[in-house]
Amino acid sequence: MSDQTIFAHVMETGENAFAVDINVSGHQIKGDEPLDAGGGNLGPAPFDLLTAALGECTAMTVRWYANQHQWPLDKVEVKLTHHKEGVQDIFKKEVILHGADLTEEQRTRLVAIAAKCPVHKTITSSPIIETSAG
C-alpha cells in the first residue's frame, strides 16, 4: 500500500472491437469485453478488474492488520460480486477468515478492517479524474 504514482498504458490490439493490452507497473494484462457485449472475451472486462482490485486490496489489508497484531490468521479469502441497479453500482464482499485460533473479537475486527482498504475507500469517496488529449 504505497503512495507512489502508478503508471498504466492501455492500447487497442485490433484483435476485436474492444481488446486491449494493459501495461501497469510492469505487468502485462489483456482486457476485453465478453462475447455478449461485442468483445472476444480475451481477458477481464473493466468492471471485472475493478471488482478484483477491491478483493485484492481487501485481502491484503486484512492480512496486514492480522500480521501487525500477530493474530493467528492462516488465510483470508474474499468473494465479491458487482452489479448495477439502475445507475447505482452494488458491490458485495464476503470475507472468509481461516484460523481456528482466532477469537470472535479478532474475527469481528478483521471484517471491520476489510471495509477500510484503500481501494474500498477510493471507490466510496469522490476521486478526481482529469482527462486530457495526448
Please describe what this structure looks like.
The chain is α+β, with helices and mostly antiparallel strands and 134 residues long. It is 31% helix and 28% strand. The longest helix has 23 residues. It starts with 7 loop residues before the first strand and ends in a 10-residue tail after the last helix.
Summarize the helices and strands and which ones pair or pack:
Elements: E1 8-12, E2 20-24, E3 27-31, H1 46-68, E4 75-85, E5 88-98, H2 104-114, H3 118-124
Antiparallel strand pairs: 1-2, 2-3, 4-5
Helix pairs in contact: 1-2
Class by SSE composition = alpha+beta
**What is the 3D form?**
elongated
Task: Tell me what portion of residues adopts beta-strand conformation.
Answer: 25-35%
Please count the helical segments: 3
The whole-number mean of residue pLDDT values reads 97
Number of strands: 5
Low-confidence stretches: none
| Major sheet summary line | 3 strands, antiparallel
Strand order of the largest sheet: 1-2-3
Radius of gyration: 18 Å
State the separation between the terminal residues, measured CA to CA. Answer: 29 Å
Helix content: 25-40%
Order of SSEs, N→C?
Answer: EEEHEEHH
